[in-house]
Design goal:
With about 130 residues, the protein is α+β, with helices and mostly antiparallel strands. It has a domain at about 5-45 and about 85-125. About 15% of the residues lie in helices and about 30% in strands. The protein has helices at about 50-55, 75-85, 90; strands at about 5-10, 20-25, 35, 95-100, 110-115, 120-125. The strands form 2 sheets. Strands 2-1-3 form a 3-stranded mixed sheet, with no helix packed on it.
Length: about 130
């Protein structure tokens, strides 16, 4: 059994259309059990939930001894950090291959997540190579 990074995306299943949190696995990155969360496609333009909305919003601790709120300037900075790939992948890759299973239809999927400016963007889908 190997070590894989994961890419968490709330998206519809490409087959049955059921919205769910997919924990896609990938072998394309460091394989250090890192968890990435791609930015939404409208991150730069959305007025609700996008970068402009999250700039200046505080990051709150998730449990009593959590120090995460002391690291990030605001929610926008933390959200972009969750999507950022480490070197050399940030400049080498145009997409990251991911795979996983839909909880409802039980179909196995092998898809891709787009890489732009060293960050993961959008949902997992078939991309033109």
């Amino acid at each position: 059994m190997g070590m894989y990074d994961s890419v968490e995306i709330y998206q519809p299943c490409p087959g049955c259309g059921t919205w769910q949190m997919f924990d896609w696995q990938t072998k394309d990155l460091d394989s250090q059990f890192y968890t990435y969360r791609p930015l939404p496609e409208d991150w730069l333009t959305a007025t609700l939930g996008g970068k402009i909305f999250r700039m200046g919003l505080g990051v709150f601790p998730k449990f009593p001894m959590d120090k995460e709120h002391t690291v990030w300037k605001d929610q926008a900075e933390r959200r972009e950090a969750q999507a950022t790939l480490l070197p050399p992948y940030d400049k080498q890759l145009r997409f990251v291959k991911v795979h996983g299973i839909c909880e409802k239809c039980k179909k196995y999927w092998e898809l891709k997540v787009e890489v732009k400016d060293g960050k993961l963007w959008g949902i997992a889908r078939e991309l033109e190579v």
